[in-house]
Write a structure and sequence with these properties.
Helicase, Ruva Protein, domain 3; 4 helices; 125 residues
Length: 125
């Protein structure tokens, strides 16, 4: 069991006054013949789930137990969506063979056309 005052320190190792009181209380309850479950239930009722190193799965602790997995799953979904969009953009950016031929024709004719027009301008002057 965890000390309610200390963070991540168990009752046996804690020097806090409340830990000493709780150790005495647990000892007294053991002498009264109470079971471990009864003692743990008493502590949880009095101090909350924090005193347990492994909190029970209940409606109050669902976020604690399943939150990290949900966040990882959500992050993985976002990564997959982004990667799919990126590959779709790359596929869209590729030219078909018809478009590549048309581009070659335009590139081949454009410099010649501009060269002819500049030559004509020079000849006219």
């Amino acid at each position: 069991m965890r000390c309610p005052k200390c963070q991540n320190q168990d009752l046996a190792d804690s020097n806090a006054p409340i830990a000493a009181d709780l150790r005495k209380q647990i000892y007294a309850q053991l002498n009264q013949g109470k079971s471990d479950k009864e003692i743990v239930d008493y502590m949880v009722d009095r101090y909350g789930e924090f005193v347990l190193y492994r909190p029970r799965v209940s409606s109050l602790t669902y976020v604690l137990w399943f939150g990290p997995a949900a966040i990882l799953l959500f992050g993985a979904i976002i990564v997959v969506v982004i990667l799919r969009k990126r590959t779709n953009r790359e596929d869209d950016a590729k030219l078909s063979s018809e478009q590549q031929e048309k581009l070659k024709q335009l590139l081949n004719t454009t410099p010649n056309a501009s060269a002819h027009s500049s030559n004509e301008k020079e000849n006219n002057h």
